[in-house]
Write a structure and sequence with these properties.
This protein has 469 residues and is α/β, with parallel strands linked by helices. It has helices at residues 24-27, 29-32, 54-57, 99-111, 117-133, 147-160, 183-197, 217-229, 243-252, 259-265, 283-291, 300-305, 313-319, 337-350, 357-371, 398-404, 410-420, 463-468; strands at 11-20, 33-44, 47-53, 67-77, 79-85, 136-142, 164-167, 169-170, 203-209, 234-239, 273-277, 295-298, 322-325, 389-392, 426-431, 434-438. The strands form two sheets. Strands 5, 6, 7, 8, 9, 10, 11, 12 and 13 form a nine-stranded parallel β-sheet that branches. Strand 15 (426-431) and strand 16 form a beta hairpin. Helix 5 (117-133) packs across helix 6, helix 14 crosses helix 17 and helix 15 packs across helix 17 (410-420). It is globular and about 65 Å long. The structure holds guanine (GUN) and zinc ion. Zinc ion binds at residues 83, 85, 238, 276, 328. Residues 83, 85, 238, 276, 328 line the site of zinc ion.
Length: 469
């Protein structure tokens, strides 16, 4: 964590503090979290040093340390979004098709523009500002096949001091020429980006074969070689999202017993390998993913929007398969992890499965940190963890304030927040102890990003200012 010390803020924040350290479904609700009604979090150099009752911590606090008082709002770890597409901010809500047609009709033409730095810089700036407006402090992102798109992504994340994971997609068939690389180019360009960005301050590179239908066996072979060279890196791809896609994979890889077997063959199934969707898996496939410590990523708004199907969370749990939950912008329709959890609840309800408030907020924070293998540094508000926080106003709208009159427990408060919430509930977002978004545009509070941590640029303060830059 020493990599962020020079970039982080030093301050204290007073709020209702909520942090999960275990899955409520496994440990039980009480043993899963810490909740402090009047809490104080002391951050030094971007890392949490102390968390406790405000009345206990305040007397020992150096009076020179600024205190941001966010009472009565909730402070939680910043949300983590383990699957989205940086170049799809202008694809969201494209009408009326299922996956394969949606890709060729809207997504591939849009992604073809991203070799242009003006296009990819603007998208990266928009994306990060929008994530922060929604309280998301870490995302795992697909860029396009153009190395430029990953450059833009990493440069903007670095400028804001965010912990972000991303990679250029590798794809060498079944897409327009403007998007195709080759096995050699995909390998070389990825390696070059790894050298330039991976481990740079808070940035990590994800090896990113788009999905089996857009890579030849030669490319998957080269991807496997890269993955073997860099055994600690993330891998991200798509798996078993749509019946047409699965049938196409069966045609393209006739030797494979199922879709997952394609990725297994090339050594792409392992810890920190993130498989988007995983809707129509067989028991064999779930077992194979679980055995290797890989992660299935549930993308509810996307799965509903594209009519892809209903993720089976309980089958994943029964198989011991690690699961994350993500927006999948722009097959997904919302940047909000609150909305994503709400739609996740509905998908699970259609399967007769349950998602309660505590379990949902565990998933958005510590659960997703575990899903992406960064649970040693983000996803909790606890000493030694990086100081990425979201401050949530659980009664931000007239309808929420009226509903709140009948709320009696924290579980209820969380469930209503998830069900009715969105970016209006996000009062502020902190990254490495610096305020990087403020809903109300307040400029006097301590901990704000007075100086961008890296390089020049305008302040990412206030929703409007952050987006209009
Ligand atoms: N499978 C391969 N590429 C994509 C993509 O961009 N979005 C979704 N939802 N699925 C994919
Ligand atoms: Zn995706």
């Amino acid at each position: 964590m020493s990599d962020i010390h020079s970039a982080g803020g030093t301050l204290a924040i007073r709020a209702r503090v909520l942090s999960y350290h275990a899955h409520p479904l496994e440990a039980g609700v009480e043993a899963s979290h810490r909740y402090i009604e009047d809490g104080l979090v002391f951050v030094r150099d971007g890392v949490v040093e102390t968390v406790g009752e405000a009345t206990a911590v305040l007397p020992d606090l150096d009076p020179a340390i600024p205190v941001a008082d966010h009472r009565p709002h909730l402070l939680m770890p910043g949300f983590i979004d383990p699957h989205l597409h940086m170049p799809q901010t202008q694809v969201v809500g494209s009408y009326g098709t299922e996956l394969m047609e949606w890709l060729s009709k809207y997504t591939f033409p849009e992604e073809s523009r991203y070799g242009d730095p003006a296009v990819s810089d603007a998208a990266a700036r928009f994306l990060m500002a929008e994530l922060l407006r929604n309280g998301t402090t870490t995302a795992v992102a697909f860029c396009t096949s153009h190395p430029q798109s990953a450059e833009s992504f990493f440069a903007e994340a670095d400028r804001l001091g965010l912990r972000m994971v991303g990679g250029k997609v590798m794809m060498d068939r079944n897409a327009p020429d403007a998007l195709l690389d080759t096995p050699e180019r995909g390998y070389d360009e990825s390696k070059d980006l790894i050298r330039r960005w991976h481990g740079n301050r808070r940035l990590s590179y994800a090896i990113s074969p788009r999905f089996a239908p857009t890579s030849t066996e030669a490319q998957l072979e080269a991807t496997g070689a890269l993955a073997a060279e860099y055994s600690g890196l993330h891998i991200q791809t798509h798996l078993s999202e749509n019946h047409g896609e699965i049938a196409f994979v069966a045609e393209l890889f006739p030797w494979a017993e199922d879709y997952t077997a394609v990725y297994e063959r090339y050594g792409l199934v392992r810890r920190k390998a993130l498989f988007g969707h995983c809707i129509h898996l067989s028991e064999r496939e779930r077992g194979a993913l679980a055995d290797k410590g890989a992660t299935a990523v549930f993308c509810p708004t996307s799965n509903l929007f594209l009519g892809s199907g209903l993720f089976d969370r309980d089958a994943a749990l029964a198989a011991g398969l690690r699961t994350g939950i993500a927006t999948d912008i722009g097959g997904g329709t919302s940047y909000s992890m609150l909305t994503t959890a709400a739609e996740g609840y509905k998908v699970l309800a259609l399967r007769g499965q349950k998602l309660r408030g505590h379990a949902a907020f565990y998933m958005l924070t510590a659960g997703n940190a575990d899903a992406i293998g960064l649970n040693d540094r983000i996803g909790q508000v606890a000493p030694g963890f990086e100081a990425d926080f979201v401050i949530l106003d659980t009664a931000a709208t007239p309808a929420q304030r009226r509903r709140a009159e009948r709320i009696e427990t924290l579980e209820e408060e969380l469930f209503v927040l998830m069900t009715t919430g969105d970016e209006r509930n996000v009062v502020a977002t902190y990254a490495a102890g610096r305020k990087v978004h403020s809903r109300d545009g307040d400029r006097g509070l301590p901990g704000r990003l007075d100086q961008p941590p890296h390089g020049p640029g305008a302040l990412p303060i206030g929703g409007g200012a952050a987006q209009d830059r």
